[in-house]
Structure formats: structure tokens, C-alpha cells
């Protein structure tokens, strides 16, 4: 029996086994069980694999018998025997003596029918042995796929404070905004009958706020714009992100310079228990000089993390989500969120902003905590806060470059009522350790 016949018997046995399971289920008027379904699927996979092997070996055996018959006709072989072919040298190999390139050219020219037969045999071998070829054999065809819609923009701190400030439209003209501030108010007093009524002249001063220009540019080659994918959108989006981050950083600088209240926290080994009274001290100062309450606490993300990491003498956290809090220093709705953090201290929402300077103090390693009224942090922006876009084709045309520019005008002040804001500074706000 030939090897292909043996494979055929094995294939028929697998099919018969699958058919038997189906017949039993049919006779019992039921569906196949999960195990039966799995067994049948495995049998069918085996049958498909055997079909490939049968095709391959049947072709090889047929060629072997034909060659044997030819040798017998020529008197080379005296006895005809059945041959089991389990392997055969490939048509094109190092030892076959055949050249694929030579045969391909000869077949194309139509000058060698033997070359065409060898090429056909080679195609059968490749079809049967296709699993031997991996993607590494097709470096020019298996190409990387660039997921341009998942490009990762440069990470920036954004504008968490600017988005919570009192935002006002920037006037259409002028580079200075002037605001009147009453510095001497009217006075009243109890009048004695017949005496003059109290009279105090009201007086004001002028607060000048400079309009700042915030801008950035990028030169991009025309090749990148014309041959790349969404390069112009990516560059403009990156410039806009940088623009908004800079506006927020400038607002933090203004707040640091203009806050009228200040409490120093000096401690070589700072603790949250010592910091907490400082924050409430600022609340008191704002209320007793601005005569209105603060509505936010602004701090660097590292400072809120320092507060949330603090534990009591029993190792229990001092700040936890609100449903689980018992005598907390801080409480929140869940995980900390950048910007409007979701946490409160003494009932005041905490805003985290990574644009707050962390290089303050003699050791250039201190941050600042601000407590105050967001209504008295004024931010004037044009066109709803979005910068303007410019694209210049000519200035760099000789170098095939395009200049892309983003710019905008802003003005900001926390000096309308300086006492509406206070700050905690000092060595107690050095880089925290965890």
C-alpha cells in the first residue's frame, strides 16, 4: 500500500468518527453537546491537514511510478515495485543542479518545455510547503503600519488655573488696560444735632494692566507638509497647546506677584498637620481684609499628593474620599483629577496646576499654595481665548520651508483687590518625599 493510500485510510477514519457522532445525536433528536462539537471540529481540522498531505504524496508517487516505467521500458529496471515516497529533493535546491532564474527565462522564451515542467512542480512544492515561509522572507511586502490617528502629542501642563479664572473679553485696541481703584472711601459718622455731617472725599488711583503678546512659530519643510500625513495639523495643535500652557504660567506668575496676603511655613521636617492651620490662617486674612470669602485653593500636584499621602499615628490616611472620611484634613469624591482635583480642604475646592513654580526660596526647591477668590483673578483674552494662526509661504520659499505661527494677546491681573488672594511660602513647601 502506498503512503498516500495509508493517509487516505486515516482521513476516512476521521470522517467516519465525526459522522458517527452526528448520527447518534440525530437518532436521539438532540443537538450536539459541547464536547461532541469540539471533537468533530478537531476531526475536521485533521481531515483538512491529511488532504494536503495526500495531494502532495499522490503527485510525488505518480511522478516516481512514471519515472520507473520509463526506466523499465529502457531496460534499466528489471522489476517494478510499489514505492512509498515520504520525501523528495525539492526542484530548486543547492544540490538539485536546477536554476530557477534560468528556467524562468527559458519558459518565458518558450524554448524549453522541461523548464516549464520544473517551474510547475516548484509551484506545487511551494503551495504544499507554504507554512515554511515566514514574514521575514518578505521584508519589502510586510510593511509597518503607522497609526497616524494615534499620534501622541507633546505632554504639557495646560491651563487649569486660567480656565477657572474670571475670563473677560480683551478690548479691540490698545496695549494697556486701565482700571480705576478707589483708595479712599467715603465716611459716615454719628451726627450730633446742629453739627456738620461727616464728609470724606473719595479718591481713586489707576491700575494699568499691560497687554502681553504670546507667540510661537515653527518652520516646516514643504516635503513634510506635502508628503507627510496631517503634519500641518499636528504642528498647529502643538503650538496651540504651548500657547495655552504659557498663558497659564503667566497667570501663575501674576498671582505670585500680586497676592496681598502671605503666611510663611518654615519647617525642616514639614507635616500636613502643621500646614493645615496655615491654610486656614489665609482664609481668615482674606475674609478680614477683602471682606469676602475665598472660593478656591490652588497648589502644585505634588503638594496635594503630599497631603493625600499623610497618615496619623495609627497609619491611617488623613485625606480620603468623602464617604470614608473621619475627621479628615481633606476629602474628595474619588481619585485625584488634574486641575479641578475633586478634593476639598476645609470645604474649599482644590485646583492643581503644574505651572506653579517649584523653584522658589533660597534652595530653589519650594512651591507655593494660593488661597483666594477666582473672581478677582482677571484674565482678558481675545476671541474666546483661542490664538490666531498664520502661515507664511514666501519668507523661506528659497529653502522650500513654510513658517507656521500662532499668536495671541492677553492681559491679566490679580491686583484689583490684592487682599482677595493669599499665599503660603517657606521651607515647609520644599520638594516632598514619599
Ends apart, CA distance between termini: 78 Å
- Counting helices, strands and paired strands, the structural category is alpha/beta
Strand order, sheet with most strands:
5-15-11-6-10-9-8-7
The appropriate CATH architecture of the largest domain is 2-Layer Sandwich
- The CATH C-level name of the largest domain is Alpha Beta
Quick one: overall form?
A: elongated
Q: What share of residues are in beta strands?
A: 15-25%
As a whole number of angstroms, the C-alpha radius of gyration is 42 Å
**What's the total helix number?**
8
> How are helices and strands ordered from N to C?
HHHHEEEEHHEHEHEEEEEEEEE
Q: Give the helix proportion (percent range).
A: 25-40%
- Number of domains as seen in the coordinates: 2
What's the pLDDT, averaged over the residues? 84
- CATH fold annotation of the largest domain: Major capsid protein gp5 fold
Low-confidence stretches: 78-83
Explain what the structure shows.
By secondary structure, this protein is of the alpha/beta class. The protein has two domains: 3-138, no CATH class; 166-429, Major capsid protein gp5 fold, CATH 3.30.2400.10. The protein has helices at 3-27, 34-73, 100-109, 113-128, 222-227, 231-258, 272-289, 301-309; strands spanning 166-169, 176-184, 203-210, 212-221, 261-264, 296-299, 319-321, 330-332, 340-345, 348-352, 369-372, 378-381, 388-392, 401-413, 421-425. A hairpin with a 7-residue loop joins strand 8 (330-332) and strand 9. The model is unreliable at 78-83 (pLDDT under 50).
